[in-house]
Amino acid sequence: MTDLNKLIWTIISLVVLWIIYQLTPILMPFYMAALLAYIGDPIADKLETWHLSRTLSTVIIFFVVTVVIFLILLVIVPLLLEQVKVLINAIPDYIAAFQNTIIPWLEERGFPVDVFDWTRIKHELVTSWEKVGKVTGSVFSQVTQSGVVALQFITNLVLIPVIAFYLLRDWDIFIANFRTLLPRRYVQEVTDISVECDEMLGAFLQGQLMVMLGLTIMYIVGLSFIGLELALLIGVVAGLVSFIPYLGLIVGIGFAGFAAYFQFHELLPIVMVVGVFSLAQTVEGMYLTPRFVGKRIGLNPVAVLFAVMAGAQLFGFMGILLALPVATVVMVLLRHGYKRYIASSFYS
Q1: Other C-beta atoms lying within 10 Å of the C-beta of residue 122
Q2: Is the separation of the CB atoms in 208 and 324 below 8 Å?
Q3: Exposed end of the chain (fewer CB within 10 Å): N or C?
């Protein structure tokens, strides 16, 4: 490939990336559908080994997923909403307990407590809630009055499963067609890199989901054993954010510790909360991550934090969801780029 051809292909690639970035707002259902289809592809391949057609395998997967989502909406969501109500009703008690116990304890030990101006804090809270109420009301008003916004939201909800169904059904066809478009001299190299990316990305996504599920279950069971009223809510939140290193541990111990203290007014439940999360982290580090994710897929915590923050800055919530999968693929590409650089005449 001449230098001119390389320049042309570089410009074309940059233009395509720029167009994709500009179209990000309308590509959200396609991103989500592609991610769901990618996760479901190994399952469909497994079902095909049982002499089932690709279409029937896709139908079975979507039926099972629909049943699971229905059960979650039917059982888990009402329980979470109930615990959210409990939390909202307990906030005044938490504030009173903090004011009557924590503040005197801090004052006895010489900490400045003048910063806790409760009159000003309550005024700010009331003002903030009023603003939130006005903004929320305005947003709901605009959403209900704007048929375009409502139609777009409904369209996305319908498009994601429909697109995911057809992508999953024809996934192998898409991959085969893409391979036929590759220049013949680069087919093997691109195929090898793609296979490695696929193995690492698939193992990472499936493994990370299993780790999050395992941590969530351990958090809920452990906090329920302590008798914490908000065990389900805190366990689910801590488990969901555990894909960011140490964030689930910090969030879980912080919220569960405060909730345990204000519920029991004793030190022992707080120690038990720390014990629950310490045990869960030990199990996660010694069994869950090595078993489901593997050491060769693990990303440096600094790289994970940077990927999540960069994804949020560039693409918002969708960027957060795609940050770690993209970082995993980039890590594979960088490894191959490093090998080629070491083997190049420029390096030697």
Answers
A1: 11
A2: yes
A3: C
